[in-house]
Amino acid sequence: MKKVTIIGSGNIGLSLAKGLVKSQFASASDITLTRRNVNALAEEASQGFKVSNDNKQAVKDADIVVFAILPQQLKKVLVEVASEIDRDRQIFVSIVSGVSCADLRAELGSDATVIRAMPNTAIAIAQSMTCIASDNASDESLHQVEKMFETVGSVVVINEDLMTSATALCACGIAFFLRAIRAASQGGVEIGFHAHDALKMAVQTAKGAADLLLHTNAHPEGEIDKVTSPKGCTIAGLNEMEHNGFSSAFIKGIKLSADKAGGLYHEG
């Protein structure tokens, strides 16, 4: 069992904490959750988690320290805890957009073991797509953090220079796919369905499409070909969407999000 401190216990931090307990990676009593307003963690305290608004105290006994705060808040917190950390023993995990391992070590110390992680909000139902990366962590440390995030979904280890791209594709990407589902449901209303039925139909169809690719390891175009017949209604709809820039708009949105994500920490 590892002792874990999560600094900044918002939705993602709390979801991770609950996933770690459910998978028996750590017990609730070995997880410390910090938040400026500890009253907001009353339910978690009743479940056996340690709660605190003292970041310096919270990091002292941890094996793994997770920073799950906004980029604009990070530097202040790093400066606050730097004097209390154990660089030889502890692993520091950052779930902060646009902040490099080097940025963290600039405050924590050049010999600190830092690993970046980028989950998405599907972590709340243990269906996150989390990317992790480091420029100095050992294979053993990376494996520990990989096992942590496997408790709340799928994990891919990538090069650090791709972490900003992972933010756009996986973290921001949740919103992009939700917007596509919303658009599909609106189309359903326009062709005659009640709103609640159209949304249910769009959601299940999107889920089916995603699961189909996950289970078959097929390429999307291969599955598309199975439902497009000559002069048929599917190809007509697809081509109309493409004429109006569907794929192009999606790609441009991802690229712009990646550009924005890369500058959040330094803007703060």
Overview of the structural elements:
The mean pLDDT is 93. This protein has helices spanning 11-22, 42-46, 55-59, 71-81, 101-108, 139-150, 163-171, 173-190, 195-216, 220-226, 233-243, 246-261, 264-267; strands spanning 4-7, 31-34, 50-52, 64-67, 91-94, 113-118, 128-133, 153-157. Helix 8 (173-190) crosses helix 9. An 8-stranded mixed β-sheet has the order 3-2-1-4-5-6-7-8, with helices on both faces. The protein has 2 domains: 4-163, Rossmann fold, CATH 3.40.50; 173-261, Orthogonal Bundle (ProC C-terminal domain-like fold), CATH 1.10.3730.10. It is an alpha/beta fold.
How widely separated are the two ends? 36 Å
How do the strands line up in the largest sheet? 3-2-1-4-5-6-7-8
Question: How many individual β-strands?
Answer: 8
CATH fold type of the largest domain? Rossmann fold
CATH architecture of the largest domain: 3-Layer(aba) Sandwich
Mean pLDDT: 93
Helix content: 40-55%
Q: Note the beta-strand portion.
A: 5-15%
Query: Which of globular, elongated, flat, extended, rod-shaped describes the shape?
Result: elongated
Which regions are unreliable across 5 or more consecutive residues at pLDDT < 50? none
- Computed Rg: 21 Å
State the CATH class of the largest domain: Alpha Beta
Question: What's the SSE pattern?
Answer: EHEHEHEHEHEEHEHHHHHHH
Helix segment count? 13
Structural class: alpha/beta
According to CATH, the homologous superfamily of the largest domain is NAD(P)-binding Rossmann-like Domain
Question: Quick one: biggest sheet?
Answer: 8 strands, mixed
Domain unit count: 2
